[in-house]
Amino acid sequence: MIFMSTLACNTKSREHFVPLAIQESVSLRQAYSKWFDIGTAIPLMTNLSERERDLLFNQFGVVTPENFMKPGVLQPETGHFAFNEADSSVNLALEHGLKVNGHTLVWYRQNHDWIEMSCDSPDAQAIIRERIRQHVSKVVKHFAGRIGSWDVWNEAISDSRNEYFRPSKCSEEFTQDLIYEAFAAAHEADPAALLLYNDFGIEYPTKREKALRLIQYLKARGIPVGIGIQAHYTLDNVPFNFLKDTLVAFDRIGVKVAISELDIDVVKTPKESCTNKMMMGDPYPNELPADVDNRLADQYKSLFSLFIDHSSTLSRVSFWALHDGRSWLNHQPCERTNHPMLWDRQLQPKQALKAVIEVAIAKDSASGH
Ligand code: G3I
Asked: How far apart are the first and last CA of the chain?
């Protein structure tokens, strides 16, 4: 609180620079409030301990359901919707003043049969078209007024140079049409919602160009569209320059960017290091060695420095877990002890958190506020 009021009223000079000692009384959300929202992915609220909930409510401003609103969860059988659990978690978030970003209306994974792409015949195409429309429409209407932004379509674009979309049984033209229909249905169901196309790897030129093409296609058809850059990075391999170019490119076409799933994997795990889903020689089963911890802090610091410099393009920066113990990177591609977040498994702040707060103070001070 002390820090927040200093940051907000810090309008005179650099003499107002807040010493590190005070920073710990400042939340991450507060430190960044003048630039963009800070979010995190969460499991169902009922799966969070009281301490985890405190961390969530004190430090973050937006939640994204990590798994509990995926298509197969909300529509487990064709035509049958299951909203109760999602409703409770969404309502609890709202009661604590958090915003909710819905994730995800359409994805090629975590579906049920109702969305299996079969484009073999005009009839099959009509069915898939109708089912996508119905799912999107029903879900967005159900949460209208409570969920302000949606990841409408997740990971449609191909990583390869040759194709526009990732391979499926449907033609590229039909896929683009379907994507438009999903966005149009979401827009119709809640005209106030911001609608995001969400993907990884769009920092890199090949995929960036395709993402720009898709976004411009949707924008030209009247969709209030934004882009979600997932930002799943690996230590010592964060693509700072490519990311910067991508932020500039989306700014040029007037499209807001959400950094939607940020984490930095510190355990490089090629698939061949996995046996029976376990990693051979888990390198950091306890805490991180100081040099790795410091590199993680430095790389998060540089990222947030870049984010602040491009804050006019950014609507939100969301992490893909509350703390190390909750990260998917402990389980995929196989079981290991990972340390990708700003808080450790005991919910203690790491050097990376201090670094990220520190850069906010330094930038605020340098801007003369
Ligand atoms: O809930 C079951 C549990 O009952 C079962 O015992 C256990 C056995 O494996 O699996 C549990 O389900 C797992 C689920 O996470 C919940 O923990 C699934 O196997 C597992 O595949 C699933 O992984 C999720 C993954 O999406 C699915 O592809 C990760 O938690 C989630 O973090 C990840 O999130 C994705 C984003 O949605 C899109 N962008 C990439 C990101 C990371 O892959």
From this structure: 18
Q: What's the gap in Å between 47 CA and the centre of ligand 1? A: 15
Q: Which atom of ligand 1 is least distant from the CA of 41? A: 32
For the ranges 38-52, 273-287, 291-305, 352-366, the lowest mean pLDDT is seen at: 273-287
User: pTM surpassing 0.70?
Assistant: yes
Q: Is the dihedral of CA 189, 191, 192, 193 positive or negative?
A: positive
Q: What is the pLDDT of residues 91-123, one digit of tens each?
A: 999 999 999 999 999 998 766 665 666 787 888
- CA dist., res. 342 & res. 59, Å (int): 11
Q: Which pairing describes strands 278-279 and 274-275: parallel, antiparallel, or unpaired?
A: antiparallel
104 within 8 A of 152, measured Cβ to Cβ: yes
β-partners of residue 52 are none
| Dist CA 284 CA 365 (whole Å) | 37
Cβ neighbours, 10 Å, residue 19: 8
H helices present in 60-204, as ranges: 71-74, 84-95, 122-143, 172-189
What's the one-letter identity of residue 88? S
253 to each of 36, 230, 241, 256, how far by Cα in Å? Answer: 19, 20, 19, 9
pLDDT tens figures, 170-185? 889 999 999 999 999 9
Residue nearest to atom 10 of ligand 1 (CA): 331
Cβ 52 vs Cβ 92: under 8 Å: no
166, 193, 191: which is closest to 179 by C-alpha? 166
Give, in order, the Cα–Cα distances in Å from 239 to each of 42, 246, 309: 26, 11, 16
- C-alpha gyration radius of the chain: 21
- CA of 28: how far to CAs of 95, 144, 241, 343, in Å? 20, 28, 25, 11
Pocket of ligand 1 (CB under 6 A): 66-67, 109-110, 154, 230, 261, 328
Which residues have C-beta within 8 Å of that of residue 14, sequence separation ≥ 6? 365, 366, 368
CA atoms within 13 A on the CB side of 277: 3
In angstroms, the CA 193 to CA 186 distance is 8
